[in-house]
Amino acid sequence: MGRGPDGSTTVLSDIEIATAATVRPIKDVAAETLGIAEQHLVPYGHDKAKVDLGYLASLADRPLGRLVLVTAMSPTPAGEGKTTTVVGLTDALHGLGHRVVACLREPSMGPVFGMKGGAAGGGYSQVVPMTDINLHFTGDFAALTAANNLLAALVDNHVHHGNELDIDVRTISWKRVLDTNDRALREVVVGLGGRINGFPREDGFDIVVASELMAIFCLTESWADLKRRIGEIVIGYSRAGRPVTAGDVGAAGAMAVLLRDALAPNLVQTLEGAPAFVHGGPFANIAHGCSSVMATRSALRLADLVVTEAGFGADLGEEKFVDIKCRLSGLRPDVAVVVATVRALKYHGGVAVADLGREDLRAVEAGMANLRRHLDTIREVHGIPCVVAINRFPGDTDLEVARVVELVEADGVGAWPATHFTDGGLGAQDLAKGVLQALDEPAASSFSFTYPDDLALVEKVEAVASTVYGAGRVSWDPKARRQLQRLERDGYHDLPVCIAKTQYSFSTDPTLLGAPTGHELRVREVRLAAGAGFVVVVCGDMMTMPGLPTQPAALRIDLADDGTILNLS
Asked: What CATH class does 62-135+266-440 carry?
């Protein structure tokens, strides 16, 4: 909110709020909130910096703080505000005198110019500089794009110059990437134009955030580990059926060089001056959906409390945070915050978007089925204590909000309405106190994964499908079955699975709302991400290169004559 020239109340856009904010020099934020001296920063201008990896390595003996994981119920067109809640909660804890860091993902320019727009929080709970964060930022995504496409070029070059590794070009699975939504590049043919341009073959592009290299980047913890993981990337198979790796092609060293500087976490600040690491950006519907382990572990050594997010609902980001990020890193959340809104509950309760502004207690009660399943996954399957953040919208009635609190508390979970979007950290103080209370209470059960390492890959998929999604069965397309059998035969059965599916439903049908049961999870494709350390299981109609909507955000974004960026969010 703001005041117009006539004294009337006006609603400011996110970018207007961010542009008007007083942003402190990042060196001051680093020194005063985290004790990081200026010499340990690599500045990118005055308001953002990378933290030197050598300095972060020197903190290895420090004890870890406590980790707060923010997730949500299944997303809706009405919006839930998960990133906004991370920022608001961080500001509230900061305002209460706690040493706290937010850990967020870097936004992809695909959604920024596509459907979503900016993704640096919203209202008065944002990280800044929001325009930089939403656009090129510190160049991490450009580095990932360059490294990824260098490997693609080296593979095709190897084949062109004699193919010493005897690569079967029909099996090359390493795709080129870019950070743009472009459906026309999903399926392409490369090498056209005669012998000088190489061997023609079918190929395609993924968006950067869906790439294995992004996953590697977010799961690695050192330059040495980065180089090792890159070397283990399987790019295809020889004609004899042997996996061929990036290490075999000789690409690991050069790719690691391109990513050397990017691996250092990016430090920015909230509107209220709390520190935030924004680093890495895998989608949760088609990748593992968590910011980097490097940033999370560094934050835990620098602060008493760390607030991080996992993409979309607990069926996607939270499950992958637990079964992939926690499994591979050893990190453990101390408490989870599940973001819910009255509007989302009513939508899952059968109310159309156009009618969400009308009070409807019956729909709120019906929509609880969706929220309740997410709570069950977190508490019963993964053994993580949790609270519910009710991100309050202006149109929510007191009766609706009170009913949500009542229903959630009846399930044995604390719920706190929060108004951080309009009120900043002050609007999330009750939520912050609820989180602190949950952290101080003994856990009712111990942390656990959805499945053990030693299950077969098919059993791991079935475990997630039945336990988390409520599915009745898993079906495998013939192509997917063959891919799965090859991975089992090649010794990759012990890897966790990363299931790519729609974020809008527990099923593969985005229109099937609420908490469906007995549905079928159809597996269309299986991809190996050996360097990342997991197997990607593509379900339903999911695409790893999104397309643009009918009216993409790019059509509204503009540059004013004075250089001001307009309508980014």
From this structure: alpha beta
**Do you know the residue count of the chain?**
569
Which residues lie below 8 Å from residue 402, measured CB to CB, with a gap of 6+? none
- Per-residue pLDDT tens over the stretch 201-250: 999 999 999 999 999 999 999 999 999 999 999 999 999 999 999 999 99
Element (H, E) at 234: strand 234-237
- Fold classification of 457-539 is Formyltetrahydrofolate synthetase; domain 3 (3.10.410)
Q: Estimate the crossing angle of helix 429-440 against helix 82-95, to 10 degrees.
A: 80
Q: Rounded distance, CA 328 to CA 216, Å?
A: 11
Tell me the CA distances in angstroms from 517 to 430, 500, 508, one per residue in order.
35, 19, 12
Q: Tokens 């056209």 label which residue?
A: 192
Do residues 91 and 73 make contact, with C-beta atoms less than 8 angstroms apart?
Answer: no
Beta-carbon contacts of residue 476 (< 8 Å; ≥ 6 apart)? 458, 484, 523
pTM, two decimal places = 0.94
Interior angle at CA 541, CA 281 and CA 108, nearest 5: 20
**Residue 183 contacts by C-beta under 8 Å, 6 or more apart in sequence?**
543, 545, 546, 547, 548
Hey, which residues does 169 pair with through a beta bridge? none
Closest-CA residue to 277 (of 105, 420, 393, 402): 105
